[in-house]
Specification:
- The protein is 28% helix and 15% strand.
- A two-stranded antiparallel ribbon has the order 1-2.
- Strand 1 and strand 2 form a beta hairpin.
- The radius of gyration is 20 Å and the shape is elongated.
């Protein structure tokens, strides 16, 4: 889908409705701009708090300190490469 908008003298752009609808953007949502060469990519910033609880963690692993999780993960990846 291609949509265009015009830049105002203050550097503002209204995001076209078709784009807002496609990205499910609503008032107050944050968006991210990424510049790649001569193009800009616009994306909705994920709501990480809203994603809380979406990953199932086995009871035996709950409460594991993050440092330990990183060490275990790195060790497991190193063993897979062998």
């Amino acid at each position: 889908m291609d949509s265009s908008a015009r830049l105002t003298s203050k550097g503002q752009v209204t995001i076209p409705k078709r784009v807002r609808d496609a990205l499910e953007l609503h008032e107050g949502d944050e968006i991210m701009f990424r510049v790649e060469r001569k193009r800009a990519i616009v994306a909705k910033t994920p709501d990480f708090l809203g994603m809380a609880g979406s990953v199932v963690v086995p009871a035996a692993k709950r409460g594991t300190p993050w440092d330990e999780v990183l060490v275990r993960t790195r060790l497991a990846r190193a063993e897979q490469r062998r």
